[in-house]
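Lest this sound abstract, we let one protein speak, letters for residues, whole numbers for local backbone shapes, and leave readers to judge:
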Amino acid sequence: MKFASLGSGSEGNALLISAAASAGGPASRTTVMLDCGFALRETERRMLRLGLDPSDVSAIVVTHEHSDHVSGVFKFARRYRIPVWLSHGTHQAVAAHASDVDIRICADGQAIAIGDLQLTPYTVPHDAREPVQYVASDGDRRLGVLTDAGQSTAHLIQALGACDALLLECNHDRAMLDNSPYPAFLKRRIGGAYGHLANETSAEILQALDRSKLRRVVGAHLSAQNNTPELALAALQAVMGDTFGGLHIACQEQGFDWLEV
């Protein structure tokens, strides 16, 4: 199993997760797109950078209805006849844009089988209708994804335990957010219990997880105005240790290239 990002941040998000068929079976590969917050042509352009054709995508799974995660989902799905999985609440929020798309409903804790991948949604605290994040598995290894959450919960800590790789939001540095020119209401929203994860909170989540199998951690969804890659890396490294070689940071323009789980 491997994963790559088309871009990660407030201007658009899309993650590709890909797994090969089990040994001994026919040669095949399943690729799932998690969110798509880019325009159709931009999505195609960024996929080409990763060596992917749109026809390689078996399904799209959606975390929530905010435009930086969902704005490109239905145009892409409609063009290439790809099924879309999302929660009931998210579907209610985007139904007007989802006509002529194969919609499938998912729910917290109910695993979705898509080819050689299994994705399990879990509920997170965010200011959306019914937001979920996902843990993906190929039957051998587990990739946990957590962005767009305002705080830690016992539920998400349990869901992300014993993963081999983790994509973890490091949205903002609290001091930078406090001192930013953002209006007060936006600062409260971002830093609130249903907003986005501060570096410090991300580190606390990482510290609380079962990290016994964890070999790779990617800091994601960094704010261009209220964080830096250096600050995010320092927060994660404080937990994982100076000798841990599996730390990465996703960026808005390039995302990141394929990483093995």
Summary: Residues 51 and 258 are 10 Å apart (CA to CA). Residues 2-260 form a domain with the Metallo-beta-lactamase; Chain A fold (CATH 3.60.15.10).
